[in-house]
Structures are given as structure tokens and as C-alpha cells.
Write a structure and sequence with these properties.
The longest helix is centred in the last third of the chain and has 24 residues. The chain is of the alpha+beta class and about 500 residues long. The strands form six sheets. It has an eight-stranded antiparallel β-sheet with strand order 13-12-9-10-11-14-21-19, with helices on both faces. It has three domains: about 100 residues, Rossmann fold (3-Layer(aba) Sandwich); about 70 residues, 2-Layer Sandwich (Dna Ligase, domain 1); about 240 residues, ATP-grasp fold, B domain (D-amino Acid Aminotransferase, Chain A, domain 1, 2-Layer Sandwich). The protein has 17 helices and 22 strands. The structure holds adenosine-5'-diphosphate (ADP).
Length: about 500
């Protein structure tokens, strides 16, 4: 058992802050690292110590493995938490950290390696009888053979890069005529994007829901699941809205999918926090997709419904403690929804936006949690993920959580960059989402850009924008005079303006 006294967080933004907050509650000293672009970032200010590690591009800063380990050694950190993204799923890094005598807050290098390859992961999980999407179990490059297999599986087919991630490296093939061309493209894309041309084919589940299970294990062989999250509202195969629990699972199915996830974790001797991802078809059959060997962006919804601080548990497990709860101790209570507030333009294909947060006021109140790494006046840097914040609403029922989310979205003021707030509102109000009858095609099927705009013609819109400007100025003046000035009026117009652009 080793007590962690000083923790280096090898990350930035909201997740670095989120980890530091728990560390501080546990009496652990926190160490930030930062790039040139993050000199003034909140995670740097929050930490007890902060070290500059290089220029803005992550390849020269947040991905500099040796430099980060060196900083940890120099400052006497006894553990490193990698957060998500960057080096969090890098087996080599986790080993380097451990070789330097520092605790790595995450699973073993072996687990990361197995689960880092979609193919190796499938092979490991299959041995435990976990249901798989029909498809090839090995990389395939022989096109005539692949074509034969595809015909056997049945179209549509999905070609996937084994080393793929982040929604990249996937190609849907509707029929045999397209197969060869798509296969060639997929291989060369996988080679250029991931440095590994291995691809495999899978049945394309036409009406899939993304359901994932949070698991937690200790280094003494105990593994439990903390129920599921549903992440079917996606754009570009990437999540934007997540919730826990899923609106469609019965208690029996919850138990079944939870046990499958625990088995997937066992298949690679997993410990610490991890997520097993499944897709569910329209017959409510679930299939293993992959395992993420780290804390997920959407972990707060699980924390809300279980009352467990996952970061605290990760730290305890890394210190060598046994899990402080058993499966039967875990109780699912209430409903939580998360909206990822991205600096992206939902009216323009969700293209990333950059700029200054001229106005940035977070929502507050009962059941609302905002995890972010920004303040009013800050710039959204172009170098990193364009997520501004995670807005989480928690209530006793799903309906109440949806209403709370809408209220919080309306209270949130973001001016200066396009963002996904209005899109989130659209989702919350949509019948398909409210009824629970949706899948990963929600955006393509139900999302209409025109409906984000305020009713009325362009003239009216211009007036609205003009008014917003005037009221914005007035409001700024008023809030300078009186910090807690009521911004209701400005709010309404500003929202209209954000929607209209
Ligand atoms: P990544 O690692 O790039 O995130 P995943 O394997 O986790 O890739 O898949 C991401 C998303 O792609 C899923 O949430 C789902 O929407 C879609 N997807 C993946 N595999 C299939 C499949 N066989 N059929 C239909 N959709 C799929």
C-alpha cells in the first residue's frame, strides 16, 4: 500500500480540474503541466504547483512522455493521472511511469495494450462468451476473400480500422458493388491516420443504440459494474448527449449487460476504472464494441446516479486498496443527463469554432453540475478538443432531468463562439428523445437546422441581433455597477441571437 501525497495530472482543461478537485478533497497536493497556449488556464491556477512543458501543439507538450515523467520525478510527485485523451490509453507511457517508480492511475500496460486494439479486444472478450457483432475476427486485406465474407455476413457492412478511435476509421458499405473501392480507401486511410493499415469488417447494425457500462476493479481481483450510460445522441460517430441510466433497459437486461462488461474486464485482468462499450440493435440484442481503458468524458452521469466519486476510487485503487463497495452495495438512484457543450456550429455541420468567450455565465441551482475549464474573457484555443463544458442535470426521474437540463441551457450564457447549447435544447424538446425512441441516427433523421433559428424573417433576425448588442452593452454596464445584476432581459435576446446565427 502506497499513500499518494502529490499527484501530477498529465492533462488540461475541465478534466484536469475535475481530478484536482477530488485530489484536494483527499488532502493530496496537485501538480499541473501546461503548454504555451495554457499559461493562463484554470487548471494551472488551481494546482498547487504548475510546470511549463512546451509549445501549444500537443505533440510538443501534452504528449511528451519523457518530459512529463521527468517533471513528475523532479517535483516529487508519487502518482500521475492521465485523464482522458492525450496519453491516457498509451501502454508505453503507463509503463514508463511505473518504471520511474511512480504510480500510474489506470490499468496495467497489458490491459491497455489488449483493449487498445479493437481486434485484440474482440478476441479477448470472445473467450468469455460476450456477444459480438457478426464479422471477421482478424485483420483482412485480401479483397476477394473479404468480399465473400461480407456477402455471408450480409450488407450493409462496416469496415473498421483496428487502431481507429474517436469515430474515425469507419466506412459503411451499402452493397457489393462499392465494396472494393471502400476497402481500398479504408486500408489507406487507416495507414495514414493510425500508422496501421489493419482493417476488419463487421455487420453494420442499422438501428443501433450506444450503451456502455462503467466498470471499476481493484488490484486484488474484484471487479464491479456501476450500471450503464446511453450515448446514442452522436454526430460524426461522436457523443454529444449522454444519460444514465438508459431509458430502455429493464432491470434484467441491466444485470445481463453489466455482467458481460465485468467479464470483458476480466478477460484482460483489468483494474481501475474502465468502460465497456456495446451497441444494441432494434431487437434489444447487445454486442461488444470495444473497451476504453480510462476515465470517460461522460463519467459524471454515473457519479450522479451512484453517488460514487470515480476519481477518488481510482486514486484509492492505485494506492492498492480494495474497492470500498461490492456489487450488491451499489444502488441506482435517479436520472442524470449530460450535454457536451462544444465550441462548434450546429447550424454548419458541427464545425469547430474558435474565439473569445465575451460572455460566459454558468447555470446554477439544484441538480446542476458544470465541469469546465474556462472563464469569461478566455479564448478557446485551436490546438485542443473544442469542448467548453459538460453540463449535467440530475433529478429523480428522466422527465424531471430533461426539464432541469432545458432550464439550465436557458440559463447558460455563452457569447463569442458558436456552441451546442441550442442543439442540446433541441434534443431535450424532441419527441424521439423524450419518448426514448431514438438511435445513433438521431441527428441525420430528426435534426433540422432551420428549427434552431428563431421564427420570423431575416429582417427580424437582424433586429434581434442589433438589440442583443445594445442590451448586451447595457447589461455589461449594469453588471459593472452591480455584480449580481439580473440579466433576464439580456438573456432572452442573447439566446435569440445565438440561435439565429
Ligand atoms: P471509436 O473508437 O472510433 O469511438 P467505436 O467502435 O466505439 O469507435 O464506435 C463508435 C460509434 O460508431 C458507435 O457508438 C456507433 O454509433 C457506431 N458503430 C460502431 N460499430 C458499429 C456497427 N457495427 N454498426 C453500427 N454502428 C456502429
Amino acid at each position: 500500500m502506497k499513500k499518494i501525497n502529490k499527484l501530477l495530472i498529465a492533462n488540461r482543461g475541465e478534466i484536469a480540474l475535475r481530478i484536482m478537485r477530488t485530489a484536494r478533497e483527499m488532502g493530496i497536493q496537485t501538480v499541473a503541466i501546461y503548454s504555451e497556449a495554457d499559461r493562463k488556464a484554470l487548471h494551472v491556477r488551481f494546482a498547487d504547483e504548475a510546470y511549463f512543458i512546451g509549445p501549444p501543439p500537443s505533440s510538443q507538450s501534452y504528449l511528451q512522455q519523457d518530459k512529463i515523467v521527468e517533471v513528475a520525478k523532479q517535483c516529487g510527485a508519487d502518482a500521475i493521472h492521465p485523464g482522458y485523451g492525450f496519453l491516457s490509453e498509451n501502454a508505453v507511457f503507463s509503463q514508463k511511469v511505473r518504471d520511474a517508480g511512480i504510480l500510474f492511475i489506470g490499468p496495467s500496460a497489458k490491459s491497455i495494450e489488449i483493449m487498445g486494439s479493437k481486434l485484440a479486444a474482440k478476441q479477448a472478450a470472445m473467450k468469455f462468451g460476450i456477444p459480438m457483432v457478426p464479422g471477421t475476427e482478424e485483420a483482412i486485406s485480401d479483397i476477394p476473400k473479404a468480399k465473400q465474407l461480407a456477402a455471408k455476413i450480409g450488407y450493409p457492412i462496416l469496415i473498421k480500422a483496428s487502431a481507429g478511435g474517436g469515430g474515425k476509421g469507419m466506412r459503411i458499405v451499402e452493397n457489393e458493388a462499392e465494396f472494393e473501392e471502400q476497402m481500398n480507401r479504408a486500408i489507406s486511410e487507416a495507414q495514414s491516420s493510425f500508422g496501421d493499415g489493419s482493417v476488419f469488417i463487421e455487420k453494420y447494425v442499422t438501428s443501433p443504440r450506444h450503451i456502455e457500462v462503467q466498470i471499476m476493479g481493484d488490484e486484488h481481483g474484484n471487479i464491479v459494474h456501476l450500471f450503464e450510460r446511453e450515448c446514442s445522441i452522436q454526430r460524426r460517430h461522436q457523443k454529444v448527449v449522454e444519460e444514465a441510466p438508459s431509458s430502455i433497459l429493464s432491470p434484467e437486461m441491466r444485470k445481463e449487460i453489466g455482467e458481460a462488461a465485468v467479464n470483458a474486464a476480466r478477460s484482460c485482468d483489468y483494474f481501475n476504472a474502465g468502460t465497456v462499450e456495446f451497441i444494441m440493435d432494434d431487437q434489444m440484442k447487445f454486442y461488444f464494441l470495444e473497451m476504453n481503458t480510462r476515465l470517460q468524458v461522460e463519467h459524471p452521469v454515473t457519479e450522479m446516479i451512484t453517488g460514487i466519486d470515480l476519481v477518488r476510487e481510482q486514486i484509492r485503487v492505485a494506492e492498492g486498496h480494495t474497492l470500498h463497495f461490492k456489487q450488491e452495495d451499489l444502488i441506482l438512484r435517479g436520472h442524470a443527463i449530460e450535454l457536451r457543450v462544444y465550441a462548434e456550429d450546429p447550424a454548419n455541420n458541427f464545425l469547430p469554432d474558435i474565439g473569445k468567450l465575451h460572455r460566459y455565465v454558468r447555470p446554477q441551482g439544484n441538480g446542476i453540475r458544470v465541469d469546465d475549464g474556462f472563464e469569461q474573457g478566455m479564448d478557446i484555443p485551436i490546438y485542443y478538443d473544442p469542448m467548453i463544458a459538460k453540463l449535467v442535470a440530475f433529478a429523480e426521474t428522466r422527465e424531471a432531468a430533461i426539464e432541469k437540463m432545458i432550464r439550465a441551457i436557458d440559463e447558460y450564457q455563452i457569447v463569442g463562439v458558436e456552441n451546442t447549447l441550442a442543439f442540446g435544447r433541441y434534443v431535450m424538446l424532441h419527441e424521439a428523445f423524450r419518448s426514448g425512441n431514438f438511435d445513433t441516427h438521431f441527428v441525420n433523421r430528426h435534426y433540422k437546422v432551420e428549427q434552431l433559428k428563431p421564427a420570423g424573417n431575416e429582417e427580424e433576425e437582424k433586429v434581434a441581433m442589433l438589440m442583443a448588442g445594445i442590451i448586451d452593452q447595457k447589461h455589461r454596464k449594469a453588471s459593472e455597477d452591480q455584480p449580481a445584476a439580473n440579466g433576464n432581459h439580456g438573456n432572452q435576446w442573447l439566446r435569440r441571437r445565438t440561435y439565429g446565427r
